[in-house]
Amino acid sequence: MSRLLLFPATARVETRRGIPQLTIAGCGLQELAEQYGTPLYLYDQATLEEAVERYRAALRAHYPAPAGLTYAGKAYLSLAMAQWAAAQELWLDCTGAGELAIAAAAKVPREQVLVHGVNKSAEDLRAALRHAGTLVVDNLPELHRVLEFSRSGERLPALWLRLRPGIAVATHAHIQTGQEDSKFGMSREEAAEAVHLCLEHNLPLNGLHFHQGSHFHDPAPLRAALDGALDFAAAMRTEYGWLPEHLSPGGGWGVAYHEAALPHPPVETYVQLVSEHLSAICRERSLPLPRLHLEPGRSIVARAGVAVYRVGTVKRTASRRWLLLDGGLADNPRPALYGARYSALPVIRPERPPAGPAWLGGPYCESGDVLIEGIPLPDVQEGEFIAVPVSGAYQLSMGSNYNGARKPAVLWLRDGEAHLVQRRETPDDLLRRDLPLEHKFLHR
Q1: Which of 14, 43, 165, 252 could form a disulfide bond with 214, CB atoms 3.0-4.6 angstroms apart?
Q2: Residue 282 falls in the annotated catalytic set
Q3: What is the C-alpha to C-alpha distance for residues 166 and 343, in angstroms, rounded to an integer?
Q4: Domain boundaries along the sequence of the chain
């Protein structure tokens, strides 16, 4: 059953209570859904750690200098995920004061915290100064604000400059970041001015960063971007005697969301190209090898996550069988935003033969609230649970309270145990920020 390959590494079909059902890490999804309710998100620790080890093994095999991994918090961040990343000795990429607060609550060591952001506020920068070991500077105005903090006696983290490589990877236009007219990063001329400013004022500049896009499957465009970054480094050596100790070509390696995308190119394909091409460029230009930093988010966490929904209504129209779920757009906006294509299996008797195509829709007041279109599924009945794999990245982190939706509970699974790491929101949570209008505004 090829769909099962999309699920976490520990996923199995096991007989529980006399009925075959999906299990993850030895936990039955039927029992979890009944106990914790739905929508329900599950994260499998073994799959997370398997993904990290694949990256580390590929770096050991192909990059002859020190290298590290930075978990991209934007994919999914919670207190538990930040704690796990710190325990794995990953760096943690945070964007803004909110994610930095999570990192601080998880006691992530300062030297493992890296900060991104295209338009960091004063609050974001102050939080970075308190909690981060590295700050990636996106633009010259931001660098001038950092300089003002320095002049006031603030301790600065290490600084990296974000280059705009002028080359994007092949992915959806909404998640391309490297093109010349991107909102992210600095042109070569701006970055050269930034290097001069840092050296002139003795700012702790020690790295370069660029990013070309998210969820790409062919690493070839990274060659030209690496060429450009190392050409820039060589020019800075000639002009200022400065070289980056650290280089990050970002991340964004894709995953298979649907069985039609299997087999997906392994992370080794991506790591090998980056490592070997960077090594070759440095030899050609007589440059020392920098410490290489990769920023995998999606390709570490996506497959580790599974969303479980309950079918509330089965509805037939002239040409469609609708399975209407208790979640969708509010916890997973990716199909509406990017046309993302997912797969699914029923939790009970998942190997039943299909009874034809089904459209999986959510409960929200939007025609675009369709999670999956035309997927072959068995004769699923009202009340059954449906499991959607590869749900670990850019779903909960991009979710909303649309139509008063309450964010789902999240369980962390390991060795037959399920741990609640995020409780389900309640109606009281939705009202927690609200203040009533004074009486004078209600009557004239």
Answers
A1: 252
A2: no
A3: 34
A4: 2-37+304-431, 46-301
Identify the active-site residue in 27, 198, 282, 365: 365
Return averaged pLDDT per consecutive 10 residues of the chain, 444 residues in all: 93 95 98 98 98 98 97 96 98 97 98 96 96 97 96 94 71 47 84 97 97 82 90 96 96 91 93 96 96 94 98 96 98 94 98 97 95 97 98 97 97 98 97 93 85
CA dist., res. 230 & res. 292, Å (int): 13
As a CATH number, domain 46-301 is 3.20.20.10
3-state secondary structure of 73: coil
**Of 308, 327, 303, which Cα lies nearest the Cα of 392?**
303
Q: Do the first three CATH levels of 2-37+304-431 and 46-301 match, i.e. the same topology?
A: no
For residue 371, the model assigns a pLDDT of 97
| pLDDT of res. 181 | 62
| Element of type H or E holding 70 | strand 67-72
CATH topology for the 2-37+304-431 domain: Lyase, Ornithine Decarboxylase; Chain A, domain 1 (2.40.37)
Query: DSSP label at 263?
Result: S
Q: For residue 437, what are the contacts with CB-CB under 8 A and spacing of at least 6?
A: none
**Helical segments of 254-356, H only:** 267-284, 298-301, 334-338
Q: What does the pLDDT read at residue 213?
A: 74
